[in-house]
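Q: What residues go here?
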């Protein structure tokens, strides 16, 4: 890549995730990090680019694209300003804090004809990428159920959204992506136990277009950090641990259990268990490589704004369901996975 002009990139936000973006951008082949926007400045003195107080200062430097890693409540205003100035953008998830704001971002970048993506980093986790490939190959047969568990201590950097928009959007996006299916209905219950404005826990039951049942348990009140995706089908089940990027397959076996009482209880026979050897590259680095390629006009697997909008729509449906104690039909299915296949 040294024989071509480097892309000029900017970063907006120097929180915990912003610093990770700065680290990756600073060493990304074919890209020069030219400026970082954060009103609080930088006290570490370790960054490779100047820290600027306002977005306008970054725009004056001239950038091809920017990574938006500021609080979710600011995504819309910053994204609209970038689009108005002809700057492509990789916006951290969730795309925005409301369906209306996310829709305005989609329309702005599409009207401007700019490359734009959403930072749903789990799509680049090696365990989930391998899982998706294996599901597409039919290794599980018919899929019956997707269960995710995502819990851990409260991230003090989050103040403007609750656990649904911050954490559950990971599980919403990855579930649709690995299965190739859309959500059709959701039922959710939330609780708030920490005294903060937003919900701390959510339990979700949902259904996908092919009838697959979905369950999500998400909270940020647990000292146990867990990131688990379990997909069960007629040939067994896959277990993806996205903390360690391990993927394990538990197969149904043809060997019958001779112990009658146990056989009657289990319902299926136990088979082999395989933990796959998977090449493990840092998901954030892979995400940045894909987005860089897209900005350069190459075919690249990025999460489009319409896909990010769809995830916000499902998350909003969860919050409506929890508020009304009802099952909510998920509308607005224009962010189709056919588009995802076309991008790939």
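A:
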């Amino acid at each position: 890549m040294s024989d071509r002009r480097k892309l000029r990139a900017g970063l907006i936000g120097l929180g915990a995730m912003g610093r990770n973006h700065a680290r990756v951008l600073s060493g990304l082949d074919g890209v020069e990090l030219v400026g970082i926007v954060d009103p609080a400045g930088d006290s570490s003195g370790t960054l490779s680019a100047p820290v600027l107080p306002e977005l306008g200062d970054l725009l004056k430097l001239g950038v091809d694209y920017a990574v938006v890693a500021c609080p979710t409540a600011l995504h819309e205003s910053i994204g609209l300003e970038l689009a108005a100035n002809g700057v492509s953008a990789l916006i951290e998830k969730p795309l925005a804090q409301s369906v209306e704001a996310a829709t305005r971002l989609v329309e702005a970048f599409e009207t401007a004809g700019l490359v734009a993506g959403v930072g749903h980093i789990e799509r680049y986790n090696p365990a989930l990428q391998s899982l998706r490939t294996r599901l597409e190959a039919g290794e599980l047969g018919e899929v019956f159920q997707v269960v995710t568990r995502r819990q851990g201590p409260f991230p003090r950097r989050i103040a403007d959204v609750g656990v649904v928009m911050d954490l559950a959007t990971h599980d919403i996006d990855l579930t649709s992506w690995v299965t190739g299916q859309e959500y059709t209905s959701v039922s959710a219950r939330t609780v708030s136990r920490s005294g903060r404005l937003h919900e701390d826990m959510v339990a979700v039951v949902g259904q996908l277009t092919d009838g697959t049942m979905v369950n999500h348990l998400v909270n940020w009140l647990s000292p146990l950090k867990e990131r688990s995706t379990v997909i069960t089908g007629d040939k067994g089940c896959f277990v993806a641990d996205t903390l360690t990027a391990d993927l394990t397959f538990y197969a149904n076996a043809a060997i019958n259990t001779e112990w009658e009482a146990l056989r009657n209880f289990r319902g299926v026979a136990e088979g082999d268990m395989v933990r796959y050897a998977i090449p493990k590259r840092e998901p954030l680095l892979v995400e940045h490589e894909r987005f860089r390629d897209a900005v350069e006009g190459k075919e690249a697997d990025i999460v489009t704004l319409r896909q990010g909008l769809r995830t916000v729509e499902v998350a909003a449906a969860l919050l409506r369901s929890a508020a009304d104690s009802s099952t909510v039909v998920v509308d607005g299915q224009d962010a189709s996975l056919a588009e995802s296949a076309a991008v790939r």
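A: Context that may help when evaluating the design: The domain at 123-282+309-343 is CATH 3.30.360.10 (Dihydrodipicolinate Reductase; domain 2). The two ends are 22 Å apart (CA to CA).
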